[in-house]
């Protein structure tokens, strides 16, 4: 079970976009995530008429390391660390380390 999942609301903790908040759009691999509105770069893209892609300079979100993002805790309104615990019925759930509240019920 991963601590950060697609669709989670996260805050960037380090780098030039520190403090930005966005949703996880994609999990690239075990250690990298793409966050909407964070780590944007300008990519010079060549046109490809076969795929219908026009050329030019496009803004693109690049992956961030999972250690540089924290899950947003709506109770404290801050980024929080996440742990995994097993409930009595055998389900594994994520919880916030600061207040012990379960993330996904």
Going by helix content, strand content and strand pairing, the class is mainly beta
CATH 2nd-level architecture of the domain at 9-75: Roll
Radius of gyration: 17 Å
Question: How would you describe the shape?
Answer: elongated
Mean pLDDT: 93
Number of strands: 10
Low confidence ranges: none
Order of helices and strands, N to C? EEEEEEEEEE
The oligomeric status of these chains comes to single chain
Give a quick rundown of the structure.
By secondary structure, the chain is mainly beta. The protein has strands at 9-12, 21-29, 32-35, 40-45, 56-61, 64-65, 69-73, 78-80, 82-86, 92-96.
Give the helices and strands, then pairings.
Elements: E1 9-12, E2 21-29, E3 32-35, E4 40-45, E5 56-61, E6 64-65, E7 69-73, E8 78-80, E9 82-86, E10 92-96
Antiparallel strand pairs: 1-2, 1-7, 2-3, 3-6, 4-5, 7-8, 9-10
